[in-house]
Amino acid sequence: MLRSFKISKVGIFATIMVLVLSMLLAACGTQKESVSAVSEKPAETPAGLPEVKLTWYFPGAFPQADQDLIFAEVNKVLKAKINATVDFKPFGFGEYDQKMQVVIASGEPYDIAFTSNWMNNYSQNVAKGAFLPLDDLLAEYAPKTFAAVPKSFWDAAKVKGQIYGFINEQIAARTPAVVVSKEEAEKYKLDIPALSGKLNPDNLNQLEPFIESVKKDFPQKGFYTSLVQLDGLFFNLEPIAGIQIPGAVDFSDSTLTVVNQYETEGVKKYAALMRDWNAKGYLNSKDRISKKTEDGTEAKTGKVSVGIGGSYKPSGDVESTAEAGYERIQFPSGTAHLTTNGIIATMQAINRNSQNPERAMMLLELLNSDKELYNLLNFGIKDKHFKLDADGFMIKEGDEAKAYVPNVPWMFATNFLAYVEKGMPANVWEDTKKLNADALPSQLLGFSFDAEPVKAEIGKVSAIFDEYSRAIDLGVSTEAKYNEFLAKQKAAGADKIIAEMQKQIDAWKTTK
Predict the structure, then answer these.
(1) What pLDDT was estimated at residue 396?
(2) 218 φ, ψ to 5°?
């Protein structure tokens, strides 16, 4: 429902919207909408909707060529549909977290921001009171998306019984993807069947002969991943509040005992292997040390022999990637699990102090139901930045350096509206939904951690992760430095955080 201080401004509009949405809901009945319904365009905007300007912060491989042109074209559609325009605020992956910390702490006005368990941390921001509860807004202004996304997904986004994140539906079943060049895998005889679904810290060194062979012939190529990209899943762990925060449960532990993931043998073995591989020159650490995070440019510039991270996507075992200029093979590192973190990994939040939360929700509904608008924002202008062939597959156009290719279709809205790229199976989105449905559900599925009681400690340990994690990723941290990292976590309140997580999990178990 509209908040009281808004009624005088938009009372007429609210009345009209209630009537329109009542008719829509009556037409739909109580049955869950089909996938095809999600792709339908929303109803025309009622007359008399006051003009507003929204501000939206989000990360990606920005800046992009022609981004201002694309944003202007998107705004033309939004103006016609919901009488709104957006001040788009894109930031590179490496700077987005810090930017949003400043924005939220300063109280700078904005309406929408990307949030997740791995960037602009969802649970921390909810604990700070930064985000607006969305339950009423979803039901009233985004009924199509609210019906289309599985109820279990919305439940996973709840904190203290309320939804604070608008879910971008995509691959929620998670296991890190391992990516190699198809040509190099064949040339150096990488035994993919022996590795697929079986990689872990104990046998990751099985990749070494392949990495060494590629490195010998292509000195610029190395091994690329990070603790954030591995996200605990590589270690068979489910982080409770994101990989940056101490506190995780082993998927096989029926007691749901919370541990500090950085004190486990698996993560320690990984850190030791990174030190060894750095000493052997496999990590290109000198070139990478200046970056806070990997931004995807390494794959495009041919610097990767093996990459691990993100999420394995079905039907994409062999992908033709115009950006990277080569065919790559993708296979899962382990078993796919459906987790709360996998579900909340790509969401939008509305600022608690937004002056136009209703219109912000209408914008999100529009992007999640208007296929042409969604693809415009993600891939650019048809026949300029991409074209569709006779079979409906998307082919990206032009010189990559001059193109619009942010490559974050999972970030803006539901990935299932994206045009399927040439070289990918036509049924990739159907297979993705099937993988979500078939994945092993975590024993913690539906548990949402309330970070409020330990928000001060979480802020401290997050800063410590930022201080030490990059050196661990690049193998330039010594064992002594790793132990210093653990000691600083403990001094900052890691044990208190873990105890609070355990307390909440134990209480949650009694309700199951």
Answers:
(1) 86
(2) -130, 85
Same domain, 358 and 320: no
* Boundary residue ending a domain (403, 431, 459): 431
Q: Are residues 154 and 195 in the same domain?
A: no
Looking up residue 249, the CATH number of its domain turns out to be 3.40.190.10
Note the helical H segments in 107-163. 122-128, 135-141, 143-148, 151-156
Is the peptide bond preceding residue 209 cis, with omega within 30 degrees of 0? no
**What are the strands, taking DSSP E only, across 65-125?**
84-92, 112-115
Which range of residues forms the domain containing residue 129? 39-173+340-431
Q: Per the domain annotation, does 257 fall within a domain?
A: yes
Tally of domains in the chain: 2
Residues whose CB is less than 8 angstroms from the CB of residue 77 and which lie 6 or more positions away in sequence, other chains included: 370, 373, 376
Helix (H) or strand (E) holding 222: strand 222-224
Amino acid residing at 326 = Y
Residues 182 and 165 in one domain: no
Residues 32-56 have pLDDT tens digits of 333 333 334 444 445 578 999 999 9
CA distances in angstroms from 448 to 104, 164, 505, listed in the order given: 22, 11, 9
Same domain, 133 and 183: no
Q: How far apart are CA 347 and CA 340, in angstroms?
A: 12
Structure tokens at 494: 């890691």
C-beta separation of 473 from 225 below 8 A: yes
> In this structure, which long-range contacts are made by residues 260-264, counting pairs with CB atoms below 8 Å and at least 24 apart in sequence?
260/486, 260/489, 260/494, 260/498, 261/232, 261/235, 261/237, 262/485, 262/486, 262/489, 263/486, 264/235, 264/237
Residues 356 and 207 in one domain: no
pLDDT at residue 287 in the model: 85
Closest C-alpha among 124, 443, 511, 125 to residue 258:
443
Answer yes or no: do 43 and 111 share one domain. yes
**pLDDT by residue (tens digit) across 469-508?**
999 999 999 999 999 999 999 999 999 999 999 999 999 9
pTM of the model: 0.74
3-state secondary structure (DSSP) of residue 428: helix
**Helices 479-492 + 455-473 axis angle, to 10:** 170
Q: Radius of gyration over alpha carbons of the chain, in Å?
A: 23
CA distance 426 to 436: 18
Instruction: Read off the pLDDT of each residue in 4-8 and give the average, rounded to a whole number.
Output: 36
Question: How many angstroms separate the CA atoms of 226 and 231, rounded?
Answer: 8
Domain boundary among 384, 407, 431: 431
- Cα dihedral sign, 265-266-267-268: positive
Lookup result for tokens 């093996």: 306
Residue for token pair 């382990």:
334
